[in-house]
Amino acid sequence: MHSMDLGEFAESQKQSFVYTPKFRKDGIDKFDHGSSPVPFVKLFEGKESDESVLSRWMLYNKLHADFHATVDDILASIDKEVVSSISNTIQELIEPASTRAKSYAQTKQFKTLILLGSDVDTNIELPEDTPDYYNVFVDLEPKDAPNVRLLLKRVIFKMLEAMELKLQEQANASGTDDTGIEYDEDVARSLRLYDMLVFEMFQPTFKRKLNLIINFKETETFFMNVFQEFIDLMKSTLNIDGMQVCFIFNLATNVEKFENNLDQSTVRAISSEVRTVDLSNTKGYKYSNMIFQSFLDCVDRKLNLSPKFVKFILDKMDNNTNQNLQLLLKILDYSLMAYFFNNPYSIFIDVANISFLDSKYL
User: CA-CA distance, 92 to 126, in Å (whole number)?
Assistant: First the structure.
């Protein structure tokens, strides 16, 4: 009877195996004797000169830098457009009722801004405070909301933290360290307890009305039961004079899928006054075309792009997903690098390198 030792048995139970190929070091040295300071290998079976390899590397970096200088400008214009669009929409939502020829009582409802195609990096800038209103921004992530009690505590903490910063900035602007705010016993107690009294005491304490903007990052990944309990809890703020709440929902899918996970009472509560900004359109075809055109301009009369490559890029651009810009950039970056990495003739896009032309290239 054959007996299997412990090592053989353990080896037989493995679900996967690691194979390390053997190679001859002198075979590697043939392509790079350690004399080249760049990550490109020598082509022509290792016979390419160090100078030629360095020239390929430098030309690649030059084109890469030129391309990304343009890309950076395009991405900056995207960010500016997105920030401006979001800020203007928030301004429309929180605009005082008197400027819209409506009574204050008629507008006592939640304001809702939906950002379609948003991600965690979406930048949000608030409109400036006014002599009558403080605009206070609270960022929330799913980890902030294990239950409704801790979620409320987080909101109040961030709101008060934002107010401390605003008051300190005001004090600094006036050349004094005195914020001018004195908390009475009731307010001090409510601040310690993190209860709803904070919202009632906001205007008497800070001498202005409150626009509270609550931003739910990655909204669809919150616990929906906690999310709905919080919305129900915040309904009591609709009865507080001098306060209005604006919710910002960042959705990766669409409104219909999001609302399917909510009770009808919650949907009604957040649907009274809604604005939608579709960021996927902002990040879509318009800027994809600009980036691809900048790539074409950068390599014009330098690289020969095959019809198959151009068709591949256009097909990818036609897939209008939220990440298409990032995907497009990765494809173009890789293509640019591969051209110089694999092609010894790429050095001749610079006519000064004609001196490298010898029998190897013929």
Answer: 11
pLDDT tens for residues 257-288?
A: 999 999 999 999 999 899 999 887 655 677 88
Instruction: Tell the residue number behind the tokens 């604005």, with chain if given.
Output: 275
**pTM of the prediction?**
0.68
Residues 333-339: contacts with CB under 8 Å, at least 24 apart? 333/64, 335/309, 336/60, 336/63, 336/64, 336/67, 336/295, 336/299, 336/303, 337/60, 337/64, 339/60, 339/303
Strand-pairing partners, residue 251, are 116
Burial class (CB within 10 angstroms; exposed 0-12, middle 13-18, buried 19+) of 80: exposed
**How confident is the model at residue 262, as a pLDDT?**
94
Rounded CA gap, 213 and 243, in Å?
A: 11
pLDDT band at 44 (very low <50, low <70, confident <90, very high): very high
